[in-house]
Amino acid sequence: MRRSSAILFLLINFFFSVSCDSNRVFDTYKTVPNSWHKDSVVSFKVNPPDSIKPYNLFVNLRNTNDYKFSNLFLIVEMVFPHGKTVKDTLEYRMADPSGKLLGTGITGVKENKLWYKEQVVFNETGEYVVNIQHAMRENGKVNGVVELEGITDVGFRIEKPQKD
After folding, report:
1. CB atoms within 10 A of CB 14
2. Lower Cβ count inside 10 Å, N or C end of the chain?
3. Keyword Kinase, does the record have it (predicted)?
4. For residue 4, is it within any domain?
5. Which CATH number fits the domain that encloses residue 121?
């Protein structure tokens, strides 16, 4: 009886959180198998619904306790429908000074919603492609981390800005 009550509670909580997410325009994850290779690019194809309204963009990550760094460097590239490309190198904090991983989640998997761009207007109609690749290096080493462990899923999210 206890188990079925817990499952029912989780299902209700899940549906409530999904239905109340009225700002979401696009939100998709892709699974990273075993480890994230430095040459592996996670791509998302997006057809924004509006070419006038501004949107906020996020990189979403799920990570486990196997993630051993306090930060994360990503290369995020947006390819516009007419060929223009914008590439950014971004750094995110993944752990507090004591080493405790940041993010939400009560299990061994933490979910992080990381700012990418704010108030973006998709002024070109058509398909945009967002490419995400890690760019991690260990302190004092020239070569990058070849196999980044602990990242299980990489996501991309577009939201309508919150109204004040």
Report:
1. 10
2. C
3. no
4. no
5. 2.60.120
